[in-house]
Amino acid sequence: MALGKNKILWALLGIIIISIIVIGFYVNDYTKNNIRQTLIEEHTDEQMIITKGLAASVSSEFQRLQMDVKTIAESKQVQQSLTDKDTIDYISKRWNDINSVTKISDIFLVDKSLTVVSQVNDERFRLVGLNLKNIQSSDEFMTKPGYSGEIISSDGIYRVLVSSPINDLDTGEFRGIVFAILEPSEIISKYIGIYEIDIASIGIFDENQKILFAKNSDLLGKEFSGYFAQRYFGENLEQNSHYERIFSGNTEAFVYDSHRSGEVISTGTPISIEKENRFFFIVTTPAKEILGEIESNLFVEDLKNNLILFVITILFVVIILKRAKSIENEKLQVIGQLASNIAHDIRNPLGTIRSSITRIEKQEIENDTINQETERIKRSVARMNHQIEGVLNYVRTTPLNVSENSLNDLIKSGLNSLIIPKNIKLEIPKQDVVIHCDSDKLKVVIENILINAIQSIDTQEGKIVIRTGEDDKEITMSFENSGPNIPEEALSKIFMPLFTSKLKGTGLGLSSCYNIISQHKGTITVTNDPVTFTIKIPKNLRKEN
């Protein structure tokens, strides 16, 4: 009888243990599926924000470049001749100006016969003498501004041509075309640091569904619906339908598991320029990259499925850790989205204002009031551009590109992008110093500190003194200004993100300076009496990097 009772107890215990194990597996699987679904939904929403933000940035860059090309076509030099020295010098200067914002490969001019007669940069490929009659959209280029993806050089790289016809401003007669060449990767790399996203997941298509930018370089120039691309993507019907909806002008997020990389999250949107869908921007992320961490964390819990509470606790901790880790990412994404919106919504009208002012100045009107007002408008445009660049510079996280530079040349280059008011006297160093640094990033620092000094002095008579020096270990730069002292309570916070004591400004300029100097293994400090920003950068920076 006792033996029978023991068997019953062992059987009950076995049933309880098995039940716990089964329940543990069920709860674990249910929790994993819920977490998995939540993560995919969250990432899909975040990826759509990224896709729209990057698409808006690319659209802004193309529209600004289109405006620059149109300005060149209407310039006095190009109107007079397509080949003389003044024209070549002019388009060379415009090439340098454009490259300071968006890197382009070349600017070239073609005549009535669509033969290239002038170009700025012939170091990479020589185009003079090349006839473009057979390129895609050549007829449209003669009648209106346009865009076209082409391979026009021996290096086989697929580039985008941005064009504007050259028509005689008096008679309207067609005289030729201005072209600017750029590689889509240059625009993408400019903004990719804003978001935590792999550049290999990005695809850009033109209005004819040709691939302008993709992870596999063999796809460049191929039509998505063509044989080569379809063979590469496995003639995926789900993917084809998803892409066709985007090519039809829809913004769409889609999760499907028949992709060549397995289950993926795909988000896409058209890029509209002048109310026409000129390009299509698609981001594709494999789901395994998102779920890999949670799967590995839950593997151990699968072996302990009978400890349901322990599993739930671990899952809770994992969720909390993941959410805590994502706080900074979400903050940067918000700033990044803000940066993209500012660039998209403000740069276009700013470009129009800047172009209009340039035309007014060309009229050579002798009127003090007009001259004063145009200078005020130019200062305002420069200040607004600075606000945009302040946000973008803060969220960009590109590595240093160290080279040998003249410190005086960097200072002068930074000054060239600023308007120094007449009430401020500026002293720059007479003795030059050679410095190893990332020239583009150090110019951002110089511009930010000088703008802060100018704003501090305001309309009072004042002075900015720049000093440089060096010893065996480091290069030193100091920027002294005669503006009012910084409040003591602000000195310790002045390099913190989003901190500002001014009514205007983003609070990211000096924070960007701090980040850039830290990247250079250097220090930046500020003191009062007088207000002085001091920067120290190691001499052996090239060796350290």
TrEMBL record:
Entries under InterPro entries matching the protein: HATPase_C_sf (IPR036890), HATPase_dom (IPR003594), His_kinase_dom (IPR005467), HisK_dim/P_dom (IPR003661), HisK_dim/P_sf (IPR036097), Sig_transdc_His_kin-like_C (IPR004358)
CDD domains linked: HisKA
SMART domains, per database record: HATPase_c, HisKA
Residue stretches spanning the membrane: 7-27, 303-321
Histidine kinase domain mapped to chain residues: 341-541
GO molecular function: ATP binding; phosphorelay sensor kinase activity
Protein name: Sensor protein ZraS
Gene (UniProt): zraS
